[in-house]
Write a structure and sequence with these properties.
- By secondary structure, this protein is α/β, with parallel strands linked by helices.
- It has one domain: Response regulator (Rossmann fold, 3-Layer(aba) Sandwich).
- It contains 6 helices and 5 strands.
- The chain has a 5-stranded parallel sheet with strand order 2-1-3-4-5, sandwiched between helices.
- Helix 4 links the parallel strand 4 and strand 5.
- The longest helix has 14 residues.
- The C terminus is likely disordered.
């Protein structure tokens, strides 16, 4: 599902984002919700296989990545190689182990499986401002500043 809007590309200053999941209903639902909020310029709701093409075609700043599936780790790893500055927000995390595995391959922020579309939108704003987005349990297991964390 491509979400391009003709005529807006050169005047739209919103951050560019793409939603990546190998589960069609997840990616389309999240993209539709984010589009309703309108803070981001969504250029696609795609499978992990299509991510390299999307990164080559667009100046993507944010990737919303379904990390509930193991194959997503390869997509995160590829994204970090192809676009080192991109912010990868993992969603759908159901365990701290999934989060740790995501962090190891370049996921920079997390919204767990109880998160909302608004949480994803807020996570995007936070990472673009340089602020962390990590569930408390994962922060306690990964960071030296275990007392400082952001809910996502």
């Amino acid at each position: 599902m491509e979400l391009h809007r003709t005529g807006e590309a050169h005047t739209d200053t919103r951050p560019v984002a793409v939603v990546v999941s190998d589960v069609l209903i997840y990616r389309e639902g999240i993209a539709a919700g984010l589009a309703r909020i309108g803070d981001l310029r969504l250029v696609g709701a795609i499978s992990s296989e299509a991510l390299p093409r999307a990164l080559a075609a667009h100046a993507v700043q944010i990737i919303f990545l379904d990390i509930s599936r193991t194959c997503s780790r390869d997509a995160a790893r590829a994204a970090r190689v192809l676009a080192p500055e991109v912010q990868v927000i993992g969603f759908g995390m159901t365990s701290e182990d999934e989060g740790l595995a995501g962090a190891e391959v370049g996921v920079t922020a997390f919204v767990d499986h109880d998160g909302t579309i608004e949480d994803l939108n807020l996570a995007a704003a936070r990472v673009l401002s340089g602020l962390p987005v990590c569930p408390p349990g994962l922060t306690a297991r990964t960071g030296p500043d275990a007392g400082e964390h952001a809910h996502g």
